[in-house]
Specification:
Layout (H helix, E strand, L loop, with lengths): L1 H10 L5 H10 L2 H14 L5 H35 L5 H24 L13 H32 L1
Helix pairs in contact: 2-4, 2-6, 3-4, 4-5, 5-6
Length: about 160
């Protein structure tokens, strides 16, 4: 019974605002490093130019993530954390919701309209993989930072 309660308390626990913000900033870095390494490995024959271009593009994507996604995700996460609903499932659902909204807005801006069969907008499996992967990274980093903060608080007291 105690083990079930500890798992439940781990899933439904309070997080500090600073911990949520740090986890949001660190969440996409793992995926970006994997993508950068794969692009650099695929274009190794181009030399240092490919390396510099990949690093610059990754920095631009990360800055866009920080400007566009982090404020919305932070607001959603703070709201869920205050109600004690910030857990793995709500993080994945929130990540999918934000990515769906950005996909629709991006499609409207860059293509000028939505596709005629609307479901084709969401038919790319890579989209779901990236969304869920970043959501899982956010959740894992959030738990790691919470444990670290808990260990620091125990040492201080």
């Amino acid at each position: 019974m105690l083990k079930i309660y500890s798992i439940f308390s781990l899933l439904m626990s309070r997080y500090r605002n600073k911990t949520i913000y740090q986890a949001l900033l660190l969440a996409p870095i793992i995926l970006q490093v994997l993508v950068a390494v794969s692009f650099i490995a695929a274009n190794y024959h181009d030399g240092i130019d490919a390396f510099v271009v990949v690093i610059r593009i990754n920095l631009i994507i990360y800055l866009m993530y920080c400007v566009v996604i982090v404020p919305f995700a932070y607001a959603i996460s703070i709201g869920l954390a205050r109600k004690n609903y910030l857990n793995f499932f709500t993080i994945i659902m929130g990540a999918c919701l934000i990515c769906f909204l950005l996909l629709v807005i991006g499609y409207l801006i860059f293509m000028g309209g939505l596709p005629t069969p609307f479901w084709k907008l969401f038919s790319n499996p890579i989209f779901y993989f990236v969304t869920v992967f970043v959501g899982v990274c956010y959740w894992a980093i959030l738990l790691g930072l919470k444990r670290r903060d808990g260990a620091v608080n125990k040492v201080k007291s």
